[in-house]
Write a structure and sequence with these properties.
heterodimer; A: 618 residues; alpha/beta; Glutaredoxin; Rossmann fold; Ubiquitin-like (UB roll); five-stranded mixed sheet; B: 159 residues; alpha+beta; 2 domains; four-stranded mixed sheet; 7 helices; 4 strands; 47% helix; elongated; binds flavin mononucleotide; binds iron/sulfur cluster; binds FE2/S2 (inorganic) cluster
Chain lengths: 618, 159
């Protein structure tokens, strides 16, 4: 346990002491234990490393650290060996002993654990050279691999809480707000509202106490960067919040995390306790007289609870229904007191702005969007993971240079951004520079940073149906246009995917969209039509193929496709017949198989099992 | 049951604003929210029972019905969806003979779909009693169900 740090100077000496106690040349094995890597069974590897180190009597001589997500979840389990930063991926759960003996002790490289670029065939030894990392700017997220999320010493040793010290001892609250305004930090949770202005409004609002809240609800069903930040570097988020509290004049804050993120809840709890013990949270922070404390609240897992007024209702222990916003939350939010809500990533950017200055920060990014953004690059992409790039990076760079393109040589079709409130972007915009304003211009939005890549086997009508269906179940039901309108849109989309669509449906969908936008109280409703509108805008042909020709070009919509065997490609391996649950697929060994369409339920098992791409879906 | 509920409420110092987490903990304890537990929460937290029900029925994570011994959650987040999650969901539901969100009559299996689990690289993902099974496909899900069905069967359920 750390004793209370009573001044900025003392903080500096603690940091120095910790830094000095760490020999940068001493070997350190870092294993990622983010949620993605844990799902590969990495805990076993961690236990085995500890055992093998102890067995060799190396426990003190070689550092061992577990860290949060490194971003390249596709390649877990993942081990990085410092100081050289040798990068091992897809590490076997029994590989610990070999890594210690060969790489750590003798400096030998284990060839089979190296990353091989699937496109060029080139091998990489060092983490920084791997193309996935090389083309990123991992300002915020990069710290994840440098700290054990449960160790405040780690965070302090890399200079953590310096920004807090600087803010509390050398800056007035107004100066901090001006700095954040000058940096033009925009909210990373969806809307992109300038954080500094919001802080300013809350500071100037009448009413006590003032609250600050961190939105870690992350309701977008295809994004996980907020989780990985909270889980992987909780002190960074805390530091940003404490600075914000001081600037705004708040003594009480809340962190609203979804219950589905147990590791994030745990790590933030630990971080809060450590920060309190060290005098960085609670009464009289760093001996400056400023007091601020935090509570953590677990959300009930409703998408709408990410919306500010619904989130406050949920924090108060009520059902999370949005309220009309005649009055800003900055005036009357949580418990009707002035409240400042920001997203996890927004808070996490604050220490960098304070530490290195607004001018430096504003030098990154585009005219209207500053700094970096973390995206969750997922779907039909080779390098699935979390990527952080400067605002203004093109989609092509993200998808092809960092993401490594589309698997199995298939063709890129679209990229979906902004979650259920966003839209699908077609190939012709691949060279667009991604920032808040550009995405909005083409009918999508930044949202929280989900990027879902789709290939030729994804159907755009089906995607529209998927998101609309999600929103039907997530609408809180307060406004009729949202509750009934989205449901009707979903029904029409289902009809189209089932071959029952009518030509006038597309126009009808567009008309309904505008009344839903007008008649909805919160942004869940008013942005709900985006997935439908953007797919109609860019993929009208696909809608028409479903409606007029009763055909799903991507081979997805069950009622419009038939399964058959390509006699040219079928080798007669019999696998499809084995997995077919209905006996529709059959044939003799080494002879071309066939599918009986009257028995086929279109379950897809045969296509999945065939190694020769011989199952045709049309 | 009442004692357990009291103890959970104690953890939150009887603070009403923690109604949602309290109910989460109660559900964790009993695997669902029995009626008596809801009344106990209402009494000891001094919250009208109607408010408790409002909250319970609003949030999807709460269940008023008992859940199965094996709880299966399939990720239907966007990333898992585009990788074919829907076909797997259909297979699991058909194999169990229930709709998603339901529990089999013998209380052996519950099946639900959920949003992103934060491990999209391994998608599609099937979680069985908290354990992640990645790169799921139709055949693998059938296999997992078979294995559980055999273990879970009391008498003649073997195929
Ligand atoms: C339906 C809905 C869901 C939302 N979900 C989230 C979320 O999960 N996380 C988040 O940070 N913001 C979410 N937002 C945006 C928040 O309302 C709010 O704008 C944001 O948290 C403010 O922080 P920022 O300015 O730092 O982005 C959501 C908005 C709506 C309308
Ligand atoms: S727009 Fe939809 S989600 Fe928002 S308050 Fe109205 S009904 Fe609820
Ligand atoms: S699995 Fe493919 S190759 Fe094998 S028999 Fe079936 S269609 Fe032919
Ligand atoms: S789609 Fe399913 S039912 Fe149809 S042939 Fe293939 S395995 Fe059999
Ligand atoms: S969880 Fe290990 S790299 Fe993402
Ligand atoms: S969408 Fe399934 S884990 Fe992210």
């Amino acid at each position: 346990m750390m004793s209370k740090i009573k001044s900025f100077d003392e903080l500096k000496s603690v940091q120095e002491r910790l830094k000095a106690g760490r020999d940068p040349k001493k070997p350190c094995i870092t294993v990622c234990v983010g949620t993605g890597c844990l799902a590969y069974g990495t805990q076993k590897l961690v236990d085995s490393f500890r055992e093998e180190l102890a067995k060799r009597d190396l426990t003190g001589r070689i550092d061992f650290r577990t860290s949060g997500c490194h971003g390249f979840c596709e390649r877990g389990p993942m081990v990085v060996i410092s100081p050289e930063k040798v990068f091992y991926q897809r590490v076997g759960l029994m590989d610990a002993g070999e890594i210690i003996d060969k790489t750590v002790l003798k400096g030998e490289i284990i060839d089979r654990l190296l990353y091989v670029d699937p496109q060029t065939g080139e091998k990489y030894v060092h983490e920084d050279d791997v193309p996935f990392y090389k083309k990123q700017t991992r300002l915020v997220f990069g710290l994840n691999s440098k700290v054990d999320p449960q160790s405040m010493e780690d965070y302090l040793a890399i200079g953590g809480y310096s920004a807090l010290g600087k803010a509390l001892t050398t800056m007035k609250p107004e100066e901090i707000i001006q700095e954040v305004i000058k940096a033009n930090l925009r909210g990373r949770g969806g809307g992109g509202f300038p954080a500094g202005w919001k802080w300013d409004e809350t500071r100037k609002a009448k009413g006590e106490p003032k609250y600050i809240v961190c939105n870690a609800d992350e309701g977008d069903p295809g994004a996980y960067m907020d989780r990985s930040l909270t889980e992987g570097n909780p002190h960074l988020v805390l530091e940003g919040m404490i600075i914000g509290a001081y600037a705004i004049g708040s003594s009480q804050g809340y962190i609203y995390v979804r219950n589905e993120y147990p590791l994030a809840v745990k790590n933030i709890h630990i971080a809060m306790r450590q920060a309190r013990e060290a005098g960085l949270l609670g009464e009289n922070i760093l001996g400056t007289g400023f007091s601020f404390d935090l509570k953590i609240n677990r959300g009930g897992g409703a998408f709408v609870c990410g919306e500010s007024s619904a989130l406050f209702a949920s924090l108060e222990g009520r059902a999370g229904e949005p309220r009309a916003k005649y009055i800003h939350a900055t005036d009357k939010g949580l418990y009707d007191k002035p409240t400042n809500l920001n997203n996890v990533e927004t808070w996490a950017n604050v220490p960098f702005i304070i530490e290195r200055g607004a001018d430096w920060y504003a030098s990154i990014g585009t005219a209207g969007s500053k700094g970096t953004k973390i995206f969750s690059l997922v779907g039909k992409i080779n390098n699935t993971g979390l990527v952080e790039v400067p605002m203004g990076t093109t989609l092509r760079e993200i998808v092809f240079d960092i993401g490594g393109g589309i698997p199995e040589g298939r063709k890129f079709k679209a990229i979906q951004t902004g979650g259920p409130s966003g839209g699908c972007i077609p190939e012709k915009y691949l060279d667009m520079r991604v920032d808040f304003d550009e995405l909005t211009k083409i009918g999508s939005m930044m949202g929280s940073g989900g990027m879902i890549v789709m290939d030729e086997r994804n159907c755009m009508v089906d995607m529209a149906r998927y998101f609309t269906n999600f929103l039907v179940s997530e609408s809180c039901g307060k406004c009729v246009p949202c509750r009934e309108g989205i449901r009707r849109m979903r029904d029409i989309l289902v009809d189209i995917t089932e071959g029952k669509g009518r030509e006038e449906d597309v126009d009808l969908l567009e008309k309904m969209a505008s009344s839903i936008v007008d008649g909805s109280l919160c942004a869940l409703g008013s942005s709900a039509p985006n997935p439908v509108l953007s797919t109609i805008r860019y993929f009208r042909d696909e809608y028409m193929a479903h409606i007029k020709e009763k055909r799903c070009p991507a081979g997805v919509c069950k009622d419009l496709i038939t399964y058959s065997v390509d006699p040219e490609k079928c080798t007669g391996c019999t696998l499809c017949a084995k997995v077919c649950p209905t006996g529709a697929a059959s044939g003799e060994r080494k002879k071309v198989h066939a599918i009986d369409p009257t028995k086929c339920t279109k379950c897809g098992a045969c296509r999945e099992s065939c190694k020769f791409e011989a199952i045709i879906v049309r | 049951m009442e004692e357990k509920v009291k103890e959970i409420i104690q953890r939150y110092s009887g603070d009403k604003s923690y109604l949602v987490p309290i109910l989460q903990d109660v559900q964790k304890e009993f695997n669902y929210l029995p009626k008596d537990a809801l009344y106990a929460v209402s009494t000891h937290l001094s919250v009208p029972v109607s408010r408790v029900y409002e909250v319970v029925t609003f949030y999807k994570a709460f269940s008023l019905k008992p859940k199965g011994r094996y709880q299966l959650s399939l990720c239907m987040g966007t990333a898992c969806h585009v990788r074919g999650g829907e076909l797997i969901a259909r297979n699991v539901a058909d194999t169990l003979g229930i709709k998603e969100g339901d529990t089999t009559a013998d209380l052996e299996f519950s099946f639900e779909t959920v949003g992103c689990l934060g491990a999209c690289a391994l998608g599609p993902i099937l979680v069985v009693n908290g354990e992640y099974h990645g790169h799921m496909n139709i055949a693998k899900s059938t296999k997992i169900l078979k294995k559980l069905g055999k273990k879970g069967a009391t008498d003649d359920e073997q195929d």
